[in-house]
Design goal:
Radius of gyration: 47 Å
CATH class of the largest domain: Alpha Beta
Order of helices and strands: HHHEEHHHEEEHHEHEEHEEHHHEE
CATH architecture of the largest domain: 2-Layer Sandwich
Number of helices: 13
Shape: elongated
Structural class: alpha+beta
Largest sheet: 5 strands, antiparallel
């Protein structure tokens, strides 16, 4: 199109200039002829100037609108989901520019979509992590905080993006850790006790983002409270086992040394020390058996033979095994179902369980109840249906358990009154075995108690026949 406009115009201008040249070069002698020549030359100049102005205006109108469209489309790049496209006419140069712009716009739109998908995917990954993640810039302004970090660091209110870390966290060890990470190239790690509600043990990892100067840091927060609790339980278990083994072994050692020193020749001394040795040997044997049984249950090695076990039969057998002991302390030991059918008879209930494991649960609960119930007290065993379970309750009128100790009575070797518990005998593993056996048979156990009035231990096992 430029050629169609410019070539004729240039031809006219050239012709006019040639005429002017001929006129000027002619031998003009009269004044009148000179005036006519000057007018002719001026007219040619005016015509040429008017043509140039007209061509410039035409070219301006021809180019300005497509260029404005190109500016508008460029401003829309990246601001919409659909890539902007332009059409700059049929001029080859403009058409090439339009095609290049449209190709670039499509590529940028595809790249923006990929970046947005990657951003959403990264946020989804960070949001699903069990560790807390905090991203900071070089000035310790918060760039990103996932939900786990908000929970562990107890951040409330709106997302604190853009605020300084020390404005939202008041824990000095954490702030010092981040400062050291920003100042040095090596990642830093520290475990702190978080004085919150509840108190936690947190392991913090901080690493500086690469680049000169440092662009920021990433803080990873891991909750190690359960690990520390398990570590304390392990330490307590080792200490308790050592103590439980040491006590009977010390008594056996003293008795044997006394007998070796000559007491064995004295019938009275011999009859005093040998039963003590036998008693402590039985205590050690029971402790080892309980430890082995508990280890097999926890490891899953213990095999169970599940079948339908009538609960009334199992309870009655347990009561008979402990009746002599209860009567010797003038204790009342009874068992009765808690559910009555419409015709006034007790409903026959059965549990889906291993019979030996059920007997061990009953023996441990009844033994524990009799042990902590004073003379003249009462121990009763009741059972009934609760949803899809049969719940067995062992109720005593004993000394009770303080509320602060109730949640720990199923821990291994945990004793509310250590002196009284060892005086009454036992290994300290009975309730722990009850808990693990109940869980292994898809059941559960819990306890309630009122100090000075008694305790209730409830075991729920799957009901048979449903």
């Amino acid at each position: 199109m430029f050629r169609r406009i410019s070539l004729p115009f240039l031809f006219v201008v050239a012709a006019l200039l040639c005429v002017c040249e001929l006129v000027i070069s002619a031998n003009i002698e009269s004044d009148e002829a000179r005036r006519h020549a000057a007018v002719l030359i001026a007219g040619c100049g005016v015509v040429a100037l008017a043509g140039v102005v007209a061509l410039s205006a035409s070219l301006t109108r021809f180019l300005s609108q497509p260029l404005q469209d190109l500016v508008v489309a460029t401003a829309r790049v990246g601001s919409t989901d659909d890539p902007p496209r332009v059409s700059l006419g049929t001029v080859r140069e403009m058409a090439d520019l339009a095609r290049t712009f449209n190709t670039m716009s499509a590529r940028l739109a595809a790249r923006f979509v990929e970046l947005e998908e990657d951003r959403h995917q990264l946020r989804a990954i960070l949001s699903g992590m069990v560790e807390g993640v905090v991203a900071l810039d070089a000035e310790q302004r918060v760039l990103y905080v996932n939900e786990r970090a908000r929970e562990l660091l107890e951040l409330t209110g709106p997302v604190p993006d853009g605020r300084r870390l020390w404005e939202i966290v008041r824990q000095r060890p954490l702030l010092d850790l981040v400062r050291r990470a920003l100042e040095g190239p090596e990642p830093t790690r520290e475990e702190i006790s978080w004085a919150g509600i509840p108190g936690r043990s947190l392991t913090l990892h901080a690493a500086r983002l690469a680049g000169p100067p440092p662009r920021g840091a990433v803080l990873v927060v891991h909750d190690t409270s359960d690990l520390r609790r398990l570590e304390r339980l392990r330490q307590d278990f080792v200490a308790n086992v050592s103590h439980e083994l040491k006590t009977p072994l010390s008594i056996i050692k003293i008795c044997v040394e006394t007998l070796l020193d000559g007491a064995a020749e004295d019938p009275n001394a011999r009859n005093l020390f040998i039963p003590r040795i036998a008693e402590q040997t039985d205590r050690l044997y029971s402790l080892i058996l309980d430890l082995l049984s508990l280890a097999r249950i926890e490891s899953g090695v213990e095999t169970f033979s599940f079948k339908e076990v009538p609960l009334a039969t199992a309870v009655q057998a347990c009561l008979e095994r402990h009746r002599t002991r209860a009567e010797s302390h003038n204790q009342c030991l009874t068992g009765e179902p808690a559910v009555t059918s419409a015709n006034g008879t007790h409903e026959e209930l059965a549990v889906w369980a291993d019979e030996e494991a059920l007997d061990e649960i009953l023996d441990n609960l009844v033994d524990n109840a009799l042990k902590y119930t004073p003379e003249g007290g009462r121990v009763s065993v009741k059972w009934g249906v609760r949803d899809e379970f049969v719940c067995l309750e062992v109720i005593d009128t004993g000394i009770g358990i303080p509320a602060s100790d109730l949640s720990r009575v199923f821990e291994r070797f945990y004793r509310v009154d250590k002196a009284r518990s060892r005086e009454l005998g036992g290994t300290g593993l009975g309730l722990s075995i009850v808990k693990h056996l109940a869980q292994a048979m898809q059941g559960n156990v819990h306890a309630t108690s009122t100090l000075g009035q008694g305790s209730t231990f409830c075991v729920c096992l799957p009901r048979a026949g449903i």
